[in-house]
Amino acid sequence: MKKFAMLLLLSGCATAPVVTPAAQDCTDNGFSLVNASAWFATAAEYDANALQTYNTARRLLDAALAMPADRPAAIITDLDETAIDNAAFEGRMIRQGRTYDQKEWASWVDESAATAIPGAVEFLTYARSRGVTPFYITNRLATEEAGTLRNLQRLGFPLDPAQDTLLVRGERPEWQPSDKAPRRDHVASRYRVLLTLGDDLNDFVNAHDKTREERDALVRSNSDKWGSTWLILPNPMYGSWERALTRGSKTPCEELQRKIDAIPR
Questions:
Q1: What angle is formed at CA 46 by the lines to CA 43 and CA 47, rounded to 5 degrees?
Q2: Domains of the chain and CATH, by start
Q3: Is residue 62 a contact partner of residue 132, using CB atoms and an 8 Å limit?
Q4: Predicted structure pTM score
Q5: Which listed site, 117, 237, 240, 246, has its alpha carbon 20 to 30 Å from 162?
Q6: Per-residue pLDDT tens over the stretch 190-220
Q7: 191-226 burial by CB neighbour count: b if 16+ within 10 A, else e?
Q8: pLDDT at 16
């Protein structure tokens, strides 16, 4: 009953005042993923949002290709929760009472079982047919590249046989940090990047360890790019937005309380 009441509270369906969660409510870490994961995996509204994003991307791509250019064109896209869907992994974590486990994640990647985000394969295939090269920049590790590549091939994502277009973390020494800027710069040094797609602020700018206020400022300072050359998909399950809320927390209960405190009263 306590867990159900907490779910109602976090989802905005309860009118009870915000209170400190009981210890047994927050030691089951997987519980905190339920509402977000259920929405991501089942909501028609999520599919509509994804299709809206990729339909917009096609129109923007056509407009950009109509402009004269002296370099080949490229698109940069993130993978997880941008082009491929890991909701089944999140479900696995929920059933184990956890939010994340690196060993389980590595096993999931090796299974190559992620599905495609609605509209992603179709859009990137269209882009490739127009002579545009898609580059997949992901913070999956170099040890996870083989499983990721199999997954992309199985789903029919376009890959360039003449070059490496799957740029993973640690593939080169300078790509070891989670900051994707060096990999984006690598692509931009040879291509005209028409569009960048992601689900996290770090897919567009370096927001690592930024506060909520600093992250908001980064969004505002790049306001002209959103919806023109940058397209972002929703991901309520995890991301750098969460770390900005919970930084410094020492227990699951403290993490949950910080999230509750961040919700306007």
A1: 95
A2: 2-237 (3.40.50.1000)
A3: no
A4: 0.90
A5: 117
A6: 999 999 999 999 999 999 999 999 999 999 9
A7: bbbbbbbbbbbbbbbebeebeeeebeebeeeeeeee
A8: 43
